[in-house]
């Protein structure tokens, strides 16, 4: 296969961003988000824990490895098939900890409320958040409440912080992928993003599509009981499967080759994406994970994933390669190869 070059290598005559203002696409989890982190936040706050650019920071305090993450949830609408902003806040935060191999323990929850929000809505969200936390075995131990003027907050935003503990012999990071490693995916993609879009736009499909929102820490726990040779884990939320794999390829300086036919995709999601002109590789998920695993352990990890309710449709979808470092390339059903690049903008904003 001939060498494949990226836009960054060959140059692009049209600027991808307006550098003077923040765009909606800067929150996409794609190229603009990466640019925002690289140009604004890393120079301001750079330190070894942050520089790894993982879903969580892992620091050592008095000999104990602590995982910490922070997240904000601005999903619109607040309630959707399969979840709501309250349960989503718990699942998203727990999952960011779990992708570092941590056992989640505690959460904070800060509510930014727009004046005029119904008390019944706020009560329903708080109840859902509490139920999701209880189910995940974590405790909401602190928080904050702010109210902004009507028209300044779009109902309700939630900010969370999560804390967990990481075993000493677990070393999971996006810069640890090695050539020969296998790429595992825990299940079908695109369900969360399509469920949000359908609810937001009043779309109806032949089969109902619900969000896959779920806490993944019990799945990652089972995987780590099989082997500690799990190099990287990511939950492909904003920017979808594409962005998560591109981040790993870039940080590990490796290529990733995928088999499109091996990627689980429900027919109703595939049909919805085709109708709406969306690529499921870029559609958000809230209950799936990617794992980069040593090839000698991949089949054993896959087997234990399939025994778990949240991994029963898991597949090996590709491998890590020395070729084309920093790129994700996918073999199509026609036998051709295409680059799976990070999204430049945002094909579906406000999904988490």
Count of DSSP H/I helices: 10
User: What amount of the residues lies in strands?
Assistant: 15-25%
- Biggest sheet descriptor: 7 strands, mixed
Q: Which bin fits the share of residues in helices?
A: 25-40%
Overall spatial form? globular
What value does the average pLDDT take?
Answer: 92
Poorly predicted sequence stretches spanning 5 or more consecutive residues: 1-17
Separation of termini?
Answer: 38 Å
Structure notes:
Helices cover 31% and strands 24% of the residues. It starts with 6 loop residues before the first helix and ends in a 13-residue tail after the last strand. The protein is built from ten helices and 14 strands. Helix 4 (85-98) runs parallel beside helix 5 and helix 7 (217-226) runs antiparallel to helix 10 (298-307). It has helices spanning 7-10, 31-45, 48-51, 85-98, 119-136, 191-201, 217-226, 240-252, 267-276, 298-307; strands at residues 57-61, 64-73, 79-80, 83-84, 103-114, 139-148, 156-165, 182-185, 230-234, 255-259, 290-293, 315-321, 328-331, 337-339. It has 352 residues and is of the alpha+beta class. Strand 13 (328-331) and strand 14 form a beta hairpin. The strands form three sheets. It has a seven-stranded mixed beta sheet. Strands 1-2-7-5-6 form a five-stranded mixed beta sheet, with helices on one face.
């Amino acid at each position: 296969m001939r060498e494949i070059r990226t836009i960054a290598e060959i140059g692009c005559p049209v600027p991808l961003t307006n550098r003077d203002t923040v765009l909606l696409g800067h929150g996409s989890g794609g190229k603009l988000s990466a640019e925002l982190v690289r140009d604004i936040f890393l120079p301001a706050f750079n330190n070894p824990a942050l520089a790894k650019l993982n879903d969580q920071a892992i620091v050592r305090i008095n000999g104990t490895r602590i995982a910490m993450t922070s997240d904000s949830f601005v999903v619109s609408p607040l309630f959707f098939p399969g979840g709501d902003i309250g349960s989503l806040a718990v699942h998203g935060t727990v999952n960011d900890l779990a992708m570092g191999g941590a056992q989640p323990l505690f959460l904070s929850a800060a509510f930014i409320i727009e004046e005029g929000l119904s008390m019944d809505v706020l009560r329903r969200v708080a109840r859902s958040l509490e139920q999701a936390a209880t189910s995940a075995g974590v405790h909401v131990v602190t928080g904050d409440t702010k109210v902004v003027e009507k028209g300044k907050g779009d109902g309700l935003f939630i900010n969370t912080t999560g804390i967990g503990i990481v075993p000493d012999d677990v070393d999971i990071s996006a810069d640890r992928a090695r050539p020969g490693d296998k790429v595992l995916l825990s299940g079908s993609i695109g369900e969360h993003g399509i469920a949000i879009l359908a609810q937001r736009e009043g779309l109806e499909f032949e089969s109902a599509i619900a969000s896959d929102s779920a806490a993944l820490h019990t799945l990652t726990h089972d995987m780590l009981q099989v082997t500690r040779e799990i190099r990287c884990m990511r939950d492909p939320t904003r920017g979808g499967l594409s962005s998560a794999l591109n981040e790993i390829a870039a940080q590990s300086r490796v290529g990733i080759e995928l088999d499109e036919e091996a990627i689980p995709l429900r027919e109703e999601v595939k049909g919805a994406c085709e109708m709406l002109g969306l690529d499921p590789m870029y559609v958000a998920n809230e209950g799936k994970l990617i794992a980069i695993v040593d090839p000698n352990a991949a089949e054993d990890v896959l087997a234990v994933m399939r025994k778990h309710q949240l991994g029963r449709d898991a597949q090996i979808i590709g491998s890590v390669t020395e070729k084309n470092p920093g790129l994700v390339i996918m073999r199509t059903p026609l036998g051709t190869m295409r680059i799976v690049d990070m999204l430049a903008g945002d094909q579906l904003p406000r999904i988490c």
